[in-house]
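Appendix C: a fully annotated inverse folding record. The material below is reproduced so that readers can follow the format used throughout the book. The structure is listed first as tokens, followed by the designed sequence.
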């Protein structure tokens, strides 16, 4: 039996190694068995540290997690129904524990019926051979590789292969997982697996999958580094229709993705008010270019996108062409006008406008917005205006807004000038 302790020592950080040894010690104490499993094992062969640690326990996983969390002063979140839990250590290492289980699918794409069972059954239910390997963490035999389906052979052949012919019928989300993995690892879906995948797509079995499960896989796909190649491969498999029947692969998509990447890195390097950007959502907006407003709304509802995500998708659909037309116009535009156009939009929408804006003028105006205007506030505050005798209400907000616009346009340059102007405005209404 192959032992991978040395390889683990080489590729895992010291804290991960210590943690895995600790898991081994606890399993001895509790008289159960613990195995490292899934992506962490796969990536070990590629010498990439996968920070998502999955451990299967032949025994009570929740009880096990509680013990580890207690010993490490970590935090545990348990899901009793599924016999799973997640422990987060004080060093922020996250470990998912599951009880070894067997799954049977009553009908295609249904949620599986879960029974707790042996470790071998657990491996048999998995998606691809490269994901169905495990490493023993038990003190006796720590580092021993368990590879019933020749995952190592497939890693050497650089191929993605299912464990059995019903894999994509049982769980069509594996179509997206397979394509993702292929492009991420630079592997190839082997011919028989590719045929099974095509058949499952042709029969549209994915339509029976619960939409939120598909949504999660779509989002993970959009977060891949090799996104264009992943989308291209989805197109080759006719798998884009899993997302929406009208999605198309345009010739200029690769260029648009590059422009989005450039806009986002510009933002990260230059914007004074940085906040984290949901880049995957920007890619999704672009993919929906050919889909109508109603079609986009239908997608957002069906896949239960979060309110904020939905609003961003919709606002791009509704406003992008109008805003871009104005921003690309050759005539002079006041900063307050740029502000009024862009401030209500999310950064994701604005960055996409920057990426797709064909004129340097439009791009420049968006950059200026991020640089100077975004989040600008007046020096005069509410209390100053109250002191002028203005009562709270719409007029109050109007005064602040007017001061801000003059400030943006460079007419008011300090607090005194703002206060002077506020007095004038207040008098008009007193
Ligand atoms: N798995 C599966 N079928 C699915 C989802 C997951 O068989 N539809 C199994 C695979 O063995 C996988 C493991 O569960 O390796 C963990 O799943 P996940 O954490 O989603 O993926 P990873 O393989 O760890 O890959 P990634 O690096 O993308 O997180």
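Designed amino acids, in order:
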């Amino acid at each position: 039996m192959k032992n991978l302790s040395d390889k683990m020592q080489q590729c895992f950080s010291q804290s991960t190694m210590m943690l895995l040894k600790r898991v081994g010690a606890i399993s001895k104490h509790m008289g159960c068995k613990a195995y490292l499993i899934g992506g962490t094992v796969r990536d070990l062969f590629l010498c990439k540290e996968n920070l998502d640690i999955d451990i299967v326990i032949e025994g009570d996983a929740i009880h096990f997690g509680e013990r580890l969390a207690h010993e490490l002063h970590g935090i545990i979140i348990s899901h009793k129904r599924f016999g799973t839990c997640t422990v987060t250590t004080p060093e922020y290492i996250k470990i998912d524990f599951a009880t070894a289980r067997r799954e049977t699918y009553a009908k295609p794409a249904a949620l599986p019926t879960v029974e707790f069972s042996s470790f071998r059954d657990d491996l048999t239910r998995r998606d691809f051979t490269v994901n169905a390997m495990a490493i023993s963490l038990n003190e006796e035999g720590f580092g021993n590789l368990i590879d019933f389906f020749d995952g190592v052979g497939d890693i050497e052949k650089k191929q993605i292969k299912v464990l059995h012919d019903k894999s994509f019928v049982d769980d069509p989300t594996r179509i997206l997982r397979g394509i993702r993995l292929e492009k991420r690892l630079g592997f190839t879906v082997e011919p028989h697996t590719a045929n099974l995948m095509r058949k499952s797509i042709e029969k549209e079995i994915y339509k029976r999958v619960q939409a939120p499960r598909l949504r999660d896989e779509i989002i993970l796909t959009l977060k891949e580094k090799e996104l264009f190649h992943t989308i291209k491969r989805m197109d080759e498999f006719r798998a884009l229709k899993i997302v929406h029947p009208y999605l198309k692969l345009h010739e200029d998509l690769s260029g648009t993705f590059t422009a989005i990447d450039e806009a986002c890195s510009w933002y990260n390097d230059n914007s004074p008010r940085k906040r984290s950007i949901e880049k995957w959502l920007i890619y999704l907006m672009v993919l929906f270019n050919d889909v109508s407003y109603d079609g986009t709304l239908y997608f957002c509802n069906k896949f239960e996108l979060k309110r904020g995500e939905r609003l961003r998708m919709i606002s791009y659909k509704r406003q992008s062409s109008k805003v871009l037309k104005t921003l690309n116009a050759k005539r002079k535009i006041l900063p307050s006008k740029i502000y009024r156009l862009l401030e209500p939009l999310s950064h994701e929408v604005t960055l996409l406008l920057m990426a797709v804006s064909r004129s340097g003028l439009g791009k420049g105006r968006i950059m200026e917005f991020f640089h100077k205007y975004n989040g600008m506030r007046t020096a005069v505050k509410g209390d100053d205006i109250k002191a002028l005798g203005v009562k709270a209400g719409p007029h109050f907000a109007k005064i602040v807004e007017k001061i801000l616009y003059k400030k943006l346009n460079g007419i008011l340059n300090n607090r005194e000038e703002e206060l002077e102007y506020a007095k004038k405005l207040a008098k008009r209404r007193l």
